[in-house]
Write a structure and sequence with these properties.
By secondary structure, this protein is mainly alpha-helical. It has helices spanning 2-21, 26-39, 42-49, 60-71, 75-116, 122-130, 133-149, 152-164, 167-184, 188-206, 213-225, 229-242, 247-260, 263-276, 280-292, 297-305, 312-328, 332-346, 353-370, 373-389, 394-413, 438-450, 452-467, 472-485, 488-501, 506-517, 521-541, 548-566, 573-586, 590-602. α11 (213-225) runs parallel beside α13 (247-260), α20 (373-389) runs antiparallel to α21 and α24 (472-485) runs antiparallel to α25. The radius of gyration is 26 Å and the shape is globular. The protein starts with a helix and ends with a helix. 38% of the residues are buried.
Length: 603
Amino acid sequence: AAENEEAQALRRELLERIAKADPKNTEYVVALAELVEQDGDLDRCRKLLEPVQSELRHTEGARILGQILAGEGRLDEAHALLVPYTTSRLAQLHDAEAALDAAFEACQDREMTRLRMGSGPQSFYDAYEAADEQEQDRLLQERLLEAIKNDAPIAEARETMMERASIVPTALDLGIVLLRRAQAMPSPEERERELKQAEKTFLAIRGVAGETDEYRLFLGQVYYWLGKQDEGRALFDELLAANDRSFTTLAAVATVLRDLGDNAGARAAIEEAYDKTDDEDEKHQAARRRALMYESLDDEIKWLRLSDATSIENQASLATSLGHQAARDGDYTQAEAHYREGIAAIDKLPESASTLNNSALAYFALSRVSGDRTSFDEALRRVDRAVALSPSDSILLLNAVTMLMQAAAAEVIGDQIDFAAIKTSAAPTYLPYLYHTQAELNDYVQRLKDHQAMRKAIDYLGKALVLAPKETRVYGALAHYYDVTEDESAAAALLAKIDAAGPDVSDEVKRNRDIAAGVDLDRYLREQRENVIQYAEVVAARRTQRDRTFALAGSRLSDQKIGLAALGEAIDADEIVRLAEEAYECSTSSATQQDLIHALLFR
């Protein structure tokens, strides 16, 4: 490893010398720019590559500079660089996807042949002969999963596919460039022509063609990406009608609507599919998909229990959700046990974007209740690999954003706040507990903006704005970021996007209406009381230390008690003010000041 690092350092030094002596040497300048990109220094990348811009053609330099210029709004130049780079590589991606599918099929055929010929382990045959039909299916599935997990050709094909899938973010950027160029064109004819190019680029990402149901389904999804939501929805409705609203079509449309962020529409479609089928396997499939579209944690657990109990994937998801339930109820020991159970189950399955994502979420939750940094690092590693396998999956991108923002915030905040003590994760929203003056704010904001993980998160959110235009989490994450960084112009632009996209706020509306009407009030009170208990325990434990963690806990405790009052519980207003005053005196900051004002207004 030391020799490798030494060789890399020597290569870097040689490239630096060549680029300095001959800044028009495209081959070596591009090689250096790739290393500089890894450092996160995009400004230097631009300075290195602009002198050779016309010579970049199909090189990685075209991608790097094209994405930089797209971010700067230099759309025509970005377009000229990204088109030649993207076209040939998308074809290579689809070849790699087909090769991976073929490797899976060949592996299953080999294992089935081996078992039929009696070449499998005797323990399998003994168990199979003694089992009923359902258990036989489970045993066979277990053998096939084990074979897939350990198959070298599949592993090799997966790595090739992951390498080729790196083109997808660039293709998305090209599609977004075309979309933005179209929006700026005054002529309706030119605008429509450019939108057609954007449509063609987005469709090329999936590589589907022809008048098939799969093509029409993806075309409807692309219409949403292009801002043509009415046309997209109409295409879905036509597809459902043409197939007599079959189970398969309803389930497929539900999955796409979830990817787009239309959770209410997705739930309606999958519940219709669940209700109309009598087939047990289809019931299980629909319940599994419905669990992914949960309205609440209890709702998710309900649908997971209706899924196939013999499925390892469902067992893992249920264990993770039960961990969330235990953490919500303050039983962190039980939560940790459930999370570890979920991780152990997922790790029995072959690697895929889905299993990587699910295990990343379990590790992420585990890090929150245990305070274990290695669990968080593993979560970040797995979600990063999941995104590499499926770069246009909006769900994966948003899960990665949450973890990347935590990584950036944790590094900027450092040890000033003990997040393990309050059983939560670092996030940009906690920065106001560190600064009070404008100079302090500017310093923290700049450090956050400059952090490589934060830049990556914002890039992912930019893609998610296109891929999931109905998803409130995208707008919420960006709104919080712009609030913390006090970026008013970006916030105004985001508001315009919200007006145009009409994100799905049905869950938030339902929750507020339920609270107002007293529906399920006991659950909301229980959750709010757990928050109060959590912060009260931290306040009691750190009262002698009186550090920033104590101040944050006291300040949040006062605010959570106000939340209890909003749910109708009798609260001592003087106590709330005392908590907020103590927090403010202990650590004067923008956040403790705002929470004190809130407490005084409440009283």
